[in-house]
Amino acid sequence: MTNPTMNILRTFVKMLPDRMQHAASKWYFFRQIRTGRFKSHEAEWARLSNWLSPGDWCIDVGANVGRYSLKMSELVGSSGQVIAFEPLTHTFDLLTHFVEKGGYRNITMLNAAATEQTCLIRIAPDLFPANPNYIFDTNTGSRISSTDNGAGDSKLGLSIDSLKLPHRIALVKMDVEGHELAVCKGMTELIQRDHPVLIVEVQNATTGVPEFLAQFGYQGVRSSENSRNLVFTKK
User: Fold this and answer.
1) What residues have CB less than 8 Å from 224, skipping those under 6 apart?
2) Which of 40, 56, 68, 197 is the S-S candidate for 171 at Cβ 3.0 to 4.6 Å?
3) Closest C-alpha to 44, from 226, 231, 210
4) The pLDDT value given to residue 4
5) pLDDT digits (tens, 9 = 90+) for 61-86
6) Under 8 Å between Cβ of 76 and 51
7) Stronger pLDDT, 137 or 171, i.e. the higher one
8) d(CA 136, CA 134)
């Protein structure tokens, strides 16, 4: 679909009631799934087959509408398992729709936030000012804040270690809008037990993620110069 055509479609859909906009999002993304165009432009997405094999378990923290989760599901197969965290209610509904309608039977979906320890958090999408591109886009950010300011949804925050996962985790991908260090701290036991490959959004030098992971023998590299992610592997 050409950009002018897409812009016209976005403008039209934005004028519809919310429930119809949501239905349009489901139609648009599921059409991409069926035609093999439901892809991420991130270099790490294209490299998932280097790190995942049939029977593996993996975790997608900040699954959004499922570009990584669905690819992971295909790679690990029926004997594997994908655990997908997506706390935003609207986005989680889209993810659930695609998993169910697409027949992805090896994805466990959690409408919760991964964090350092079990708690309640507030999380809200960054949709101000209103962004009509969001209807056909998955790059909308979110904000995590304290539970007492009234902004966003109140959701359960879970540490990954608290799940006591019974199988080795081969890979963890996380994209949680600056909350990555808390996620890492909440999976310290898993890191020490399984040494998974970690795909982490690290866009600046102040996150503390590389320094935290270095104590477990991890080193991070970027797949390309303009990549927003670091891929951490144990040295």
Assistant:
1) 43
2) 197
3) 231
4) 65
5) 999 989 999 999 999 999 999 999 99
6) no
7) 171
8) 5
CA distances to 57, 167, 187, 220 from 164, rounded to whole Å, are 13, 9, 10, 26
- Domains of the chain plus CATH, in order, are 3-234 (3.40.50.150)
DSSP string, 173-229: EE--TT-HHHHHHTTHHHHHHH--EEEEE--STTS-HHHHHHTTTEEEE-SSTT-SE
Give the whole-angstrom CA distance, residue 34 versus residue 22. 18
Q: What is the spatial distance between Cα 60 and Cα 46, in angstroms, rounded to a whole number?
A: 15
Q: Residue 144: what residue type?
A: I
> pTM for this structure?
0.82
Q: Which two tokens stand for residue 96?
A: 């659930």
